[in-house]
Structures are given as C-alpha cells and as structure tokens.
UniProtKB/TrEMBL annotation, chain A:
The UniProt record lists the keyword Iron-sulfur: no
InterPro entries found in the cross-reference section: ABC_transp_perm/SBD, MetI-like, MetI-like_sf
Location within or outside the cell: Cell membrane; Membrane
Domain ABC transmembrane type-1, first and last residues per copy: 20-206
Protein name (database record): ABC transporter permease subunit
UniProt main location, coarse: membrane
Any single Gene Ontology cellular-component annotation: plasma membrane
Keywords tagged on the record: Membrane, Transmembrane, Transmembrane helix, Transport
GO BP field: glycine betaine transport; transmembrane transport
UniProtKB/TrEMBL annotation, chain B:
Pfam families in UniProt: ABC_tran
Name recorded for this polypeptide: ABC-type quaternary amine transporter
Keyword ATP-binding assigned: yes
Keywords attached to this entry: ATP-binding, Nucleotide-binding, Transport
Source organism per UniProt: Prauserella cavernicola
Superkingdom field: Bacteria
From TrEMBL, chain C:
GO cellular component: plasma membrane
Protein name, UniProt field: ABC transporter permease subunit
SUPFAM superfamilies: MetI-like
Organism of derivation: Prauserella cavernicola
GO biological process, one term: transmembrane transport
Protein origin, superkingdom: Bacteria
Primary location recorded for the protein, binned into one broad class: membrane
Family per record: Belongs to the binding-protein-dependent transport system permease family.
C-alpha cells in the first residue's frame, strides 16, 4: 500500500477527520493563549526593568534561565509548582507563557532602549505622566523591534505544543503519539503539515498586525534611501 | 603622470548612471578634491581608482599604466585608503591595524610593528595608544589611526573617502590642519572625496565639482571655483557667501597697518577720548578701552571690552576684514607671527585693497 | 513531592547500572555532542558562504524558519517509522533541529560585521579568504557562538523528547516515570535535564568569553554603554 493510499484511507474516516479538527483547535488554543499572555507578561517585566534599572540584571538572568529549561522538563514540574493536576492543559499554557515571556523580555528592553531619548524628553515636557507616556509613546515605538521577537515566539510555541502530547495534552502532538503507537505514517504527516501551515498562517497574521499597528513605519518606507554617492 | 580618468562611465544594472564620461587628470603630489552633492558619483569615482568599483567603460591610468593590468589586491596594497568612520579592525590593536598592509605584503613582523610605531608618531598620537583597541579611542583618534594605516605601505597615492565627515567640527578642523601639515612633508598624491565645499577649498590644490548623474561640472583651483563658477549649479553649490570666502585666497600684503594708541594692562592710564588697545607685557592684545572711560588705579583685564578676531600679518585678506568687522572699535587688530600687536586696519582700507586688486573681486 | 524527589536522589539504586544517573547523563551528553558536531559541520560552512558572498540570504532565512516550525515530536516519530531505529531517527532529528540556529547565527554574525570594516579590508588589498578568516570571522564570533549556544539548548530539550521513540538519556526518567506515575522520578528527570542545559550553557558562555577577541568585546561593551547612557 503506497503512502498516498494510506493517507486517503486515513482521511476518509470521519472519526479521524473529527480528531484532526479537534486537535487543531486545541493546538491553536494551547499555542496562542500563551503567546498573548506571554507578551503581556514580557511588557510588564520590561517596563519594570526599564523604570527600575537595578532589576534589569536579575530580570535578564531569570529569563535566560527559564529559557534554558527544556520544554518537557518544564511541562512535568509545573504541576508540582502550582498545584495543578498532571494532565491539566493549564500546565502547557503556563509553561509556554513563561517561554514566550522569557524570549520577549530582552527584545522589549532593547526596543524600549531604542526609543529616541528626545522623544521621551519631549513627551515628558508636554506633561505626560510616566504610565501614560509608556503606553502611548514608548510602547508603540517599540512595536517594530518587539514584532520580530513575537514572530519567533509564535513559531516556537506552535512547534512546542506537540511535546505536550507526552503528558497527554498536546494538540496536534496527539497525532504523533497516535501514529507512533499504531506505526502509521498518515497522522504524523498530517500533524506535521498542519503544524507548519498553522505556523505560517499565524506568522502572516502577525506581519499584518504589525503593519496595522505601525502605520508610520509604512509611511517612512517608500522614501528611497539616498543613493550612495 | 598622476592618475588619469579616460572616458570613465559607470552604469548600474538598474540603469542609474553613477559616473558619466569622466575625463580628469590628477597631478602627482597634489591634493585633488572630488566634491558634489550626494548621488554625484564622487565616491564611485574614487573607488574606481583602487578597483573597488569597476567602470562600465573607459580606463584609468595610474602612473601611465592601465590599472586593469594589475591584480586588484596587489594594486590596493600599493594605494592608501581612508574611509569615513575609519573602518578600523575592532579585534586588532592600533599597532596591528596600522601594520595591516605591510604584513599583507609579506614584511617581517618586527619591521612592520616598528614602522607602525613610527607612523603613530607621524599622525600625532602618543606611543601608548598603540596597544589599545579601536573601541578605546575617540573618533578623532580613530581617524588618525586610519590615516596612519593608509600611510603604512608608503604608497605615493592616498585615497580618502569623506574621512573627516563623522567627527565633530572642532576635531575635523584639527584633522584637516594635520593633513595639510603631513602633506607638506610627504608630498603624496591625494584624492579626497567630500560633500563639504568648505573642506574642499581648504584642503584642495585642485577641486573637481561633480553634479548629480556623475558629470564633471568644473575642475580648477579652489579660487577659480569660488570666483568663477562655470554655471548656476557650481555657483549654487559653492554657496551664497562665496565672494567673501574667495577672500581666503587673496594675499593682503598691500593693506596699510595704522598705529593705534595702546595702554598696558597693570599700568595707570589717564583719560582719553579715543579707543585704546590694551596689551599685556608681551605686547599681545587683551581687549579695548572705550573712549572716555576712566580707570581707577591699575588697569585690570576685567574692565576691558572683549576684542574681535585677530589678523595675523601675511595671511589671506579674509582674516583682516573679519578682524575689522568683529572689533568693538571697528579697528581690526593686526598681530605678527608671535602674536604681538603691531597696529590696526579698518574695513574701509581692506575693501579698498580688495577693489584695487587685479584678481580681487569676482567679475 | 519534595520528599519523593529527595528519596529518588538518595536511592543508591538510581545511581548505578544502565538506568543510573551517570549513564543517563553521559548518554544525553553523547547525543547532544554528536548531533552538535554534525550540525556544525553542515551549518557553519553554508552560513559562512552565504554571509560572505551575500548570495542566498533570503532562502537561508526562509528555510531556517520552516525548520524551526517543525514539531520535534512529529519529526522524531516520523523518522522512527522511516528508519525503525531509535538512535538513527533521533540523531537525524536532532541534527535537523540544531542546524537553523547555527546557520542563522553564522549568517547573522557575518551580516553584523560593520560594512566599513569589510570595505577597509578590501580596500587595503585583502583577498576574499583573508578578509573572511582574518576579519569577518573573528568579529562575527560572538554571534556565531550565540547560535551554537541556542542549538545546544534546543538539543538538550529535544534529546529528552526523543526518548519517546526509545532513546536513552535523561528523557527516560521523564517518560518512564510518567508511565508508572512515579512523580519523584519524573521530577528528578526534569531537574537533571534542566541542570544539564544550564551547565552546558554556562560552559559555552565561558568558551565564548575565551574565544572572542578582546577588541571585539570592548567594542560591544562600548556600544552597550552608549545605548544605556
């Protein structure tokens, strides 16, 4: 039986199709919710590091450390740290939120550093209070740098979710363990393909979102750089 | 022989013409400045001399030989090259940066280091800088190291691509003076690119003004370019006050220096109804005492009106006019080479000299 | 929970034999180092070529992103079904996943070399190879090694996941512990994996510090000072 016959047979089963749709939906939830939560957390922590330079070193060390912990290890220790059940999907959400935040803290700090001091000074001079200045001036200007980090985090999350299948919560990852146990290529290939497509679609959406959020960048883009003499 | 551009054209694949049929002869032992707005092809022209850019058509002769006949890397080792931001190698010490070309050319390591140390002195840097890394130097120091590195091969030709554009104005002026001093000792053939017309007229023996699209607009001495721009483009490029700046090239031997009443700082001057120049014990001007001012006891410097710029006898007449215009007494103070006041000039006298000068005003 | 972990670590049976900590750590380390060497041999030359010539940069970044999106578990189970040998499947999977960070680091490192420095090197008559080895590579080294560090973190994590297809190493504790619900063993596996990752990262950080030329470090420090000033 060729691979394509096998694939056709696999996809013709309504049960299998239902499983694919269900796991895909779960995969989106498990990857994207932590992405959003992680971004918020990273911005909060970044703001802390930006306004309180002493915290900066600690923040960077901790985020590096979190990022160093292997995903499977984090998945299995989180229940004991926060008291959830081993098979609860919250574990994956918490772990991936931490990864996302750990990955984004440095870009947030770098992006905030890159905001021209003159802009901050003029905002202050016009009477912005620090919190409002941060939300309406510094943060928007940090979006272009931040966006690059968010795209990496989204791809990484989408690919990591499937590791959760080893602790029973894994979105499309369940198709991999399924295929492995039944020595069956089709679910694995379908799982890989859908993961890649999902990563691509989310990436495109993020690119669009970045364009919408930073209209000034687009306005600046068409102006051709001076031709070097 | 020098460097000869023969019908050089550079077209890029997208159709932009960077240099358009350039014919130019650069004389040995001179500083030739290529100047123009961005997009005029000045850097492209410079980079064609050491084959960093290959022309689309035409040929360049160096000492009478077509540069395409020599291997590009070997050609470059024989031509000094200085660029904006210096482009120093951050992972190498200052000395080994300077020794780059000698080592590439297979010199013995000790000989190369010795040469590098000599050059450090030539460009006016203390010996201890040699062990430092570029990141530990100021912008001006980095640029000096860049010049030293270009001199290391002892090549007769030096290409300088906006070498001083990235440093602040005060440092830039110092570096320019330094370059002129070096050139008076070394007599290299220097091709210098800048977008700054002031820098061009200050440094250049000859100035080539290029227009956007890579066409040569005018090629001549700085005085010619300032006084007789060939067209509106050159006139516009050299700027509005070109008449005034042209005075930089006019000697002022004919200006009559008049005597002026002086008072010595520390003495007890009597009242007077004219302007009096205050000088110190060495005869150097310190400021002015206004007409009718009465001094109680000894004259101290705090009581003086600040003087204007000083004009050193024998330098171009621009300085004399400026000295007269900037003086509170409308009298420009003339000093000798030691800085001692020898008299004053008025703006009227300076203008008379200019008007009567055979090359005086732009006609 | 903590009691279980202490019990596990203090049980001398867990420190001996085929399933003992020393063996498992060495196995894990072996997979990581073997795949790191293979991935480096493949990725560094490609990264140097693309970075030096500037040809194929878009293709390199694009394919790197696609591989990054590949789900680890899917790749490893797929390869296992293909080769029916856990060692071969796991090593190939690990190599595939380690290539993008090394490639990206090498390429980005060369890209980040100040253009004026490369220009000066060329203008002084350095040939292509001299420029690459004497100028570009030493200056790019911090970023190249940063890519290697990322790859190592990824390898430690992925080697644990690859235990699912029957590979040895520290992942065994995680998965075998999960299978028999021995949380002490699971947590011990997680701690050991995380520790291994952190220790390897520290070792590489030290190597990085030793290999990066002093002038490059000074330049980096200078740039950072300017940003924070």
């Amino acid at each position: 039986m060729s691979f394509f016959d096998e694939l056709g047979q696999y996809l013709s089963s309504a049960n299998n199709r239902e499983q694919i749709v269900d796991t895909l939906a779960e995969h989106c939830y498990l990857a994207l919710l932590p992405l959003v939560l992680g971004i918020v957390l990273a911005i909060l922590v970044g703001w802390l590091g930006n306004t309180w330079p002493r915290a900066r070193g600690v923040i960077l060390v901790v985020s590096n450390l979190v990022y160093t912990v292997p995903s499977l290890a984090l998945f299995v220790v989180i229940p004991s740290l926060i008291g959830t059940k081993m098979l609860d999907s919250i574990n994956v959400v918490v772990a991936l939120t931490l990864y996302t935040a750990a990955l984004l803290v440095r870009p947030v700090l770098d992006a905030l550093d890159a905001v021209p001091p003159a802009v901050i000074a003029s905002a202050t001079a016009m009477g912005y209070r620090p919190a409002r200045r941060f939300l309406t001036v510094e943060l928007p200007l940090a979006v272009p740098v931040l966006a690059a980090g968010v795209r990496v985090a989204s791809v990484s999350n989408i690919s990591l979710v499937s590791v959760g299948a080893l602790i029973g919560v894994g979105g499309l990852g369940v198709l991999f363990t399924d295929g492995f146990q039944r020595e069956y290529f089709s679910p694995i290939v379908v799982g890989i393909a859908l993961t890649l497509v999902l990563a691509l679609v989310v990436d495109l959406l993020l690119v669009l979102l970045r364009r919408v959020l930073t209209p000034w960048d687009r306005a600046a883009a068409p102006v051709k750089e001076e031709v070097p003499a | 022989m020098g460097i000869e551009f023969r019908g050089i054209t550079k077209k890029y694949p997208d159709g932009t013409v960077a240099v358009d049929d350039l014919n130019l002869t650069i004389e040995d032992g001179t500083i030739t400045v290529l100047v123009g707005p961005s997009g005029c092809g000045k850097t492209t022209s410079l980079r064609m001399i050491n084959r960093m850019v290959e022309p689309t058509s035409g040929s360049i002769l160096l000492e009478g030989e077509d540069i395409r006949d020599s291997d590009a890397a070997l050609l470059r080792r024989g031509i000094g090259y200085v660029i904006q931001h210096a482009g120093l190698f951050p992972h190498r010490t200052v000395l080994s940066n300077i020794a780059t070309v000698p080592l590439l050319s297979g010199w013995d390591k000790n000989k190369a280091k010795k040469r590098a140390a000599e050059l450090l002195e030539v460009v006016g840097l203390p010996a201890e800088v040699g062990k430092r890394y570029p990141a530990q130097l100021s912008g001006g120091q980095q640029q000096r190291v860049g010049v030293a590195r270009a001199l290391a091969a002892d090549s007769p030709v030096l290409l300088m691509d906006e070498p001083f554009s990235a440093v602040d104005p005060v440092v830039r002026e110092g570096l320019q003076d330094e370059l002129l001093r070096l050139q008076s000792q070394l007599g290299k053939t220097i091709v210098f690119v800048t977008h700054d017309i002031d820098e061009a007229v200050r440094l250049g023996d000859r100035v080539a003004v290029l227009r956007v699209g890579g066409k040569l607009a005018q090629y001549g001495t700085p005085a010619e370019v300032l006084r007789q721009p060939v067209d509106d483009f050159v006139a516009g490029f050299v700027g509005k006050d070109r008449g005034y700046r042209g005075l930089s090239f006019l000697a002022a031997d004919d200006v009559l220096v008049e005597d002026v009443p002086t008072v010595r700082v520390g003495s007890k001057p009597e009242g007077s109804d004219g302007w009096r120049l205050a000088v110190n014990d060495a005869g150097e001007p310190r400021g002015w005492l206004a007409p009718g001012s009465v001094v109680d006891g000894e004259l101290v410097e705090g009581e003086l009106l600040a003087g204007g710029s000083l004009y050193q006898q024998g330098t171009p007449i621009r300085g004399a006019l400026d000295a007269a215009l900037s003086s509170p007494a409308s009298l420009g103070v003339v000093v000798d080479a030691d800085g001692k006041a020898i008299g004053v000039v008025t703006a009227r006298q300076v203008l008379d000299v200019i008007e009567n000068h055979p090359e005086g005003v732009a006609r | 929970m903590i009691g279980e972990i202490i019990d596990w670590f203090t049980n001398s049976a867990n420190w001996q034999g085929e399933d003992g900590v020393p063996t498992r750590v060495l196995q894990h380390l072996g997979y990581v180092l073997l795949s790191l060497v293979i991935a480096t041999v493949i990725a560094v030359p490609i990264g140097l070529y693309v970075g030096h010539t500037g040809r194929g940069g878009v293709l390199l970044v694009g394919s790197g992103n696609v591989i990054r999106a590949l789900p680890t578990l899917g790749l490893v189970t797929f390869l296992f079904l293909l080769f029916t040998d856990s060692d071969i499947a796991a090593i190939i999977g690990l190599v595939v996943l380690a290539i993008p960070p090394i490639l990206a680091g090498t390429y980005a490192g060369l890209q980040a070399v100040d253009r004026s420095v490369v220009d000066a090197a060329e203008g002084m008559g350095m040939r292509g190879g001299q420029r690459l080895w004497q100028i570009e590579v030493p200056i790019a080294l911090p970023i190249v090694l940063g890519g290697v560090r990322n790859a190592v973190l990824q390898l430690v994590a992925t080697a644990a996941v690859a235990a699912y297809v029957g590979l040895g190493g520290l992942g065994r504790y995680l998965l075998d512990g999960l299978a028999i619900l021995d949380y002490g063993e699971v947590a011990a596996g997680a701690i050991l994996t995380a520790l291994l990752a952190i220790v390897l990262d520290l070792v590489l950080a030290t190597v990085q510090r030793a290999l990066v030329p002093r002038g490059v470090r000074l330049a980096e420090a200078g740039a950072k000072k300017e940003v924070s000033a």
